[in-house]
Specification:
seven-stranded mixed sheet, Rossmann fold, alpha/beta, globular, six-stranded parallel sheet, Dihydrodipicolinate Reductase, domain 2, 11 helices, 2 domains, homotetramer, 13 strands
């Protein structure tokens, strides 16, 4: 039984980690911290966990995690980088669900996140926790940077095409639609019910922090990648729908086979039959990225449809998947539940 | 490993049964029937089950269930009563998620359901599958009538008060709010997105089929019970919120203790701390009825708030709970997952 | 052309006033104030008003309203009472959409609102702005207390029964369901999209500020009135559905006629045909309260269904209706647009 | 006062026409037909129109419209083409809100709509009713083809760029998100509440009927236009958000001015300030297309954000705008109401 801790358990990735860990047969949640709510029972804040999580939030400190094999950081950006070194020195492995270790090129990170990085040497050590790209490295990692929600959906949509040189790498457009939980559990007029429901809008068109993350990872597959990334806010709680466009190069007739082959053994990527249109609800609550590939001959473009639950495969579920890999467990342990439909 | 079948797997209770059974460690889904979709792969209709349910819908017939220990009827009313005797004769036990066996008084059933009952003798044998009332009888039953969604929430709200004679039995009002999945998976203008969302309405105020069911069960606790039952349609997928009013009799100061005591050992009834207001989302996807009790001195009335997921504790989850009891399994087997919040 | 001002135009009643006034043929919005946003263009905050409202928010002060015939207070509670006397002294009439002048019994107000009232003498002068009760008094009023959203729906549901002594006045229960805009335009985790959508909950069961308001008005019709009032939060933007229960006294066969007669000449109360179930969406955006009356013989109770848009007949629309009366305009001026369906 | 009729008044464009016409000072609805509901009161189906529309649905026939100056066809495709000639022969002008007369190239129409066109000669005569392109022709037209909802949003987004040769005409991608009312008022599992809400999906990626319509109109501006058009279904009632991408040609620094200039006098196109992100809710219920233009230097692409209410500027509102033009009225008559926010 692995002993795990969560730093910052009052946001949506924190509660989702607890929901998933509550059903995990080989991991036990030992401690969960929150500076603002220390002393409060977890199930007072999150009554869905009544009788399942019998912990109080405790003060964050390195001692708090003394017994843990692993700590998840479900915190705002720049929190994990301040504490990572001390935890690692104490023999505690670490998965950061925020962005502190996602971007290898530190100046780029500092530009987009508006802060000086506290531990560039750990950025170098950190493994980008997308198992479909970095499974072996994750197994041995002390420090995993859990990918962003949008990057997971977009990168998984493009790996087969880029690995096989089948698209113009400068032509990529990722038009992405996200549920509101991606904005976090905050007091904010802009994400209040009456402002979000019954409406759709794009945001951050000139530039979103997930853009440099996606670009860096994709440039690892093809150094010429450039892309447009447009996030949209949807009136749904959970779900990302990435609609990815790219100009085709060469023959397109084997593209369906190619995706099916490449992802055949992936437990959490599901290539739909040709002609499909995946719905985000089919992955609600599930650690799954469901993908369909369309080729449009008149425009000679691919349109890849990629859906995930931003809190699961896009955050907490992928973090548990990474934990499973880091500790030699069955990669699917605790992650087999189907999506909730309806 | 129990072998189970589902009759009529294309509705919301059918798909929810599959979702729950997919994670059940001691039951295996062997067959699922649908007259209209025989031959179609289940996961074509319900892609959330891809890789988890590897079955095609098959033609309904008694032979189809030959190997099954238990068959769930997730069918429209009047279907189960036509097939029950033959299945029971073949040694197959049966849980009906529709209404055919819920009401013991057959003329009442016939009046509300507008049909002649096909097997009144089986109505007598059938056990009303509310474990909190009939646990022992369920264990030995061949035929279980799974309660309606509204009745489950309303009855659980009232058991402690009625058992202890603490309310005027003629004063009960159950004002209930239900998610739209309670109306089933049908092609119907009235339940289309644009007609339901951003609106609230009462329906069936003069009389709803769940009224005689609730009344009969409550009259088993106090023969003087009369009640008003007002269902409302809510723009949510899942969830019932019952707000139950009753005139108090005698001292009210021990009511919180009373509820806590009576439900202390119930795995799927959660009495909230005094003063609470349960939210339906706290039980989304979970087999749980969460209850809070308020006493209003000025009006000398109790207000009991009772929430459940109509598809889980109000239908498929309760059916699995009944199956667990019928086959001597741990009552909570396959039913421990927390609600999905957010 | 009446000249009007709005104090506190950044909340939902403020923007709704602007929406309605933009189509009003006899009133012109001259000034709108907001301490926090002084200098900002109104249509920057509310782009639906681009090209229709060409004003900036200005600093609140009595001088700001110098030219106005009427000022609407769309402010938090306790704001209007601090400024009312000065405005009235300057010859400006006033409609308060908050609660400062709604309750005549000042100690009750002070208890529920947790403040000392700044001008009890104006409470006495103020007219409770429910035209269906106080039309004549409103015409001559300098100061109108615009009713609360819940009170409007509940009181209109009960006037005919109470005026005619047809119910037990101690038996009333008002089970009310409200859209989230009733909670205002605030930064608040509890009203954020992910916490509200796909869920239903009761709140303030032990006591809500609209309870004493409803009680006082109803006691004006029958001094023995006592009631239970249970508000619920719904995942809709606009709409209140009041489901009102009361024990019948005497014969019930004329109740439909009674409602139709009493409200025959009311432009903004619509009595539906017998047996109806009004939907909140039928009044979305419209200044209308739509009512249906049911009598249940078995329980000898009335169930009255009453729907309104909480921002229109429950707030800004009723305020415009009051303005029309105060200034001798056609009562329906600017208020004839139908509800938006779908 | 113009006398108008509506054919097929039971769908969402029909009811929206009635909502708009109810507030129109110069048009009077004389007749509304529906084969299936002949004899039923309009306000029984649509209670928001109680007291505002005092008509019964009548049998469709040319005599039914005898007094009308104009008839709107709010019918399924292929209905208007069967009746158009006879109405025109009787001196009645006609606006078709369906697709029968939108595509000039009849073989293309026949291919996409799967029918033989009944009156190709009227296709030639018909004017495509986008006032921003064809205002003068509309004024004199007997027969107007009201544009599709998606085409309106996409074409208005692109006119300035294409007219000025500022984009590669072969590079256009229109990623569009639509509210569910665009699918019509039908009994359909796929558009039921529980299947649509809390989910997002693309549909018709290989080809949607609005693609040839958009292409033909845009090719009128630049004959080399080719485009990808991807519609997505959103869990909102009303609203289209078109996110349009195109490769820039030449200098981009004047693009904001260009849009502002070109649309300066358009009453129903609103160019937002540079850097804006329009929300669909800002045009809910309003006859307005709100547009923002972004230029992304790294990718050298334009991203144009274009929002409308699919039932208003995308259907019934534009039809009324066309009616105003055809009959020499103020183009904005009956169309000045602001969007409903929140």
């Amino acid at each position: 039984m692995i002993k795990v801790g969560i730093v910052g358990g009052t946001g949506y990735t924190g509660i989702e980690l607890m929901r998933l860990l509550a059903s995990h047969p080989q991991a036990n949640l030992e401690v969960i911290t929150s500076r603002s709510l220390a002393g409060t029972a977890v199930d007072e804040l999150f009554p869905n966990l009544r009788s399942l999580v019998d912990l109080n939030f405790s003060e964050p400190s390195v001692n708090a995690y003394g017994d843990c094999d692993l700590v998840f950081f479900a915190t705002p950006n720049t929190t994990a980088m301040a504490q990572a070194a001390e935890l690692l020195d104490n023999g505690i492995r670490l998965i950061d669900l925020a962005a502190d270790f996602r971007i290898k090129h530190v100046p780029t990170w500092e530009q987009w996140y508006g802060a000086t990085h506290a531990c560039p040497e750990l950025v170098e050590e950190a493994v980008y926790g997308l198992p479909e790209l970095n499974r072996e490295a994750i197994r041995g990692a002390r420090l995993v940077a859990n990918p962003g929600c949008y990057p997971t959906a977009v990168i998984l949509a493009l790996i087969p095409l880029l690995k096989n040189g089948m698209v113009d790498p400068g032509s990529i457009i990722a038009d992405c639609k996200s549920g509101t939980s991606g904005a976090g559990r905050n007091a904010n007029v802009g994400t209040s019910f009456c402002e979000v429901t019954e409406s759709v809008k794009a945001y951050a068109v000139p530039g979103h922090r997930h853009l440099p993350e996606i670009r860096e990872v994709l440039q690892g597959l093809d150094s010429d990648v450039e892309l447009v990334f447009t996030p949209h806010l949807m009136p749904i709680i959970r779900g990302i729908h990435a609609t990815v466009y790219a100009d085709a190069r060469g023959a397109a007739d084997q593209v369906q086979n190619l995706y099916e082959e490449l992802y055949r053994d992936e437990p959490f990527v599901d290539v739909m039959p040709a002609g499909s249109h995946p719905e985000t609800r089919s992955v609600r609550g599930a650690n799954m990225c469901r993908i369909a590939i369309h080729y449009l001959p008149a425009a000679n473009k691919y349109v890849i449809l990629s859906v995930e639950d931003n809190l699961v495969k896009g955050a907490a579920g992928q973090a548990v998947q990474n934990m499973n890999l880091m500790f030699g467990l069955d990669e699917t342990s605790g992650l087999k539940a189907p999506g909730m439909m309806p």
